[in-house]
Amino acid sequence: MWLPCGGTSNYIVTHFRRRLFKAYFRDLGRRRCNVAAFMPEAAGFDGVSDRSALQEFSVSNSESFWAAVARQRLSWIRPFHTVQDCDLSRGEIKWFVGGQLNVSVNCLDRHVHTCPERVALIWERDESGSEVKVTYRELLEMTCRLGNLLRRHGVKRGDCVTIYMPTCPLAVASMLACARIGAAHNVVFAGFSAEALAERIRDAQSGTVITVNQGVRGGKVTELKKTVDTAVQSCPAVQQVFVAMRTENPVAMTARDVAMEEVKYQTNWILIKILMSTAGDYKWHAVVQEMLKEDVVCEPAAMDSEDVLFLLYTSGSTGKPKGLVHTQAGYLLYAALTHRYVFSYHDGDVFGCVADIGWITGHSYSVYGPLANGGTTVLFESTPIYPDPGRYWEMVQRLKINQFYGAPTAIRLLLKYGDEWVHKYDRSTLKTLGSVGEPINTEAWEWYHRVVGDGRCPVVDTWWQTETGGICISPRPSDADAEIVPGMAMRPFFSIKPTLMDTEGKVLTSNDVSGALCIAQPWPGMARTIHNNHQRFIETYCRPHPGYFFTGDGAYRSKEGYYQITGRLDDVINVSGHRIGTAEIEDVLNQCAAVAESASHRVFSQFVQRLPKTRSGKIMRRVLRKVVERDLDGVGDLSTLDDPTAVQEIIQGHGDLC
Ligand code: 6R9
């Protein structure tokens, strides 16, 4: 600030100056105050007076940023002595070294102390209109009982428990029970085949499986216990299978199940039966008190920050699925912070992430992020079109959902059914709409924003991966009125430093460029290794661009510095020397009314009824590519494929090629 001094009226100038200085400091104080109200930790960060300064601080002082956040937001049994000890080029990642904590205590006990009757979970069962609410106190009790049950059956710290269950409170309690006793969980999506399940059980060296008798999704019953029976035949290490009852139909028990002591089995059975048959008005906790035998107190294990919390398998383009490993403190903290800030989640909000718990989105944003924040989270068991295409919005109205988080594939599908299905229901509780899993094309983005959100809710296109643990790029957090560009993930989250590389591996420093998306410095939520195969971890993520984490995705950085994900790098199409992502081609195709969705490939020009997709809804472009390349042997791992007949149809359509 420059002010003229001296001259004819010193008094006036001095007075004027004082007022200006006062106004300046008042404004500075207000800005500091705003940023501290936004994030209390920021009050202790030097020179951080507004949100953009906070973002810059988090990138250039990542250690101080995360140390403050970790102290503020997690309950520690023993404080950490070293914030981070990372070497990206060797794939050695450690956060909050020396610290000890228990994830289930952070997700449950500390909220039970302050608000035991707050609803933790709203189970939106497949049968619409029969939701079940579980409070923090109830979820803690369930978790402790299960923890005790597992302990009594010999599950120890460091063991791995496979969970093959639909999205339901008992699945969440199973995850948290593992965390409580220090076992790792390995949730396998309950739509996977027996072979896919067996492969994951074997690779994880899992000795215990938790499942249900039958699953129900979209009104269809699936035989989950039978699938487990088939799977464990080729898994000699499996000692025990716990079976919960999702439906009333009894299932055949095998020798393995019978071998368990009757009383223990009974306890498990009762626990499950109470929970699973619960309808809206069922007073289940009264029955729990009466019937459950397990103690409601279960001593939490003191876990080191870097002990394994879970494995989650994700398919690679070739070879067998990778069991990505996430650890305790860093993962939980990152899930919690992104959940709070990307979606602007506030106490009392109802958070509706419709992903299945079998995917990372379900882990981070149905379970760990919301529970670490003491939130109320919806567990969605059904499909977007069951019993009709109004399912999501009827649920939003009934459960008064404030943040809705879904996938572009579902949005594209619903868009084709027309606006009436949305208009029928009251969506005035919605504040933020999120998208994840694939690039969201402009048409779907605009429909989501205009029709679903009535043009008043920010749409956050969130880019991240199983490997990143939580959201890395998304339009928020940023000032409430900061612009959001349709179809762009836009801005890095706190401490994330996205970097684009050219084909020679050089860092692209300017804007308006496309390249391979890497992340230049470690963050607490990133995966630590691939289970039993650290070498593969290094080769896949660390070696392509030494010193950087390589994501495998391509991205464009706009003139303004915003990021747009263009899709997996191996999907990039070269048209007359221009690198074009499949997303851009599909964007154009999707604007034709006759096209429901599309997946493009440079020599693929045939219209098909269905596209091969993973069970989480991602189009499996590599399968299309291999078909047109006539390389059927090279299609790689198909265990995540939703409907194999879609591939058969395409192969038949390409009879001349294959
Ligand atoms: C969270 C999740 C990761 C891959 C990722 C990318 C694609 C996810 C995206 C997106 C464009 C987005 N992806 N979010 N592409 N825009 N907002 O989906 O994890 O199942 O491991 O998949 O999904 O290609 O590399 P995961």
UniProtKB/TrEMBL annotation:
Stretches assigned to the Acetyl-coenzyme A synthetase N-terminal domain: 53-107
One cellular-component annotation, GO: mitochondrion
Single Gene Ontology MF annotation: ATP binding
Alphabetic keyword roster: ATP-binding, Ligase, Lipid metabolism, Nucleotide-binding
Cited SUPFAM superfamilies: Acetyl-CoA synthetase-like
PROSITE patterns: AMP_BINDING (PS00455)
GO biological process assignments: acetyl-CoA biosynthetic process; lipid metabolic process
InterPro entries: ACAS_N (IPR032387), AMP-bd_C_sf (IPR045851), AMP-binding_CS (IPR020845), AMP-dep_synth/lig_dom (IPR000873), ANL_N_sf (IPR042099)
Domain of life: Eukaryota
Residue ranges constituting the AMP-dependent synthetase/ligase domain according to the UniProt record: 109-523
Listed EC numbers: 6.2.1.1
PANTHER family: ACETYL-COENZYME A SYNTHETASE (PTHR24095:SF83)
Entry's family note: Belongs to the ATP-dependent AMP-binding enzyme family.
Protein name as annotated: acetate--CoA ligase
Designated gene of the protein: LOC117727381
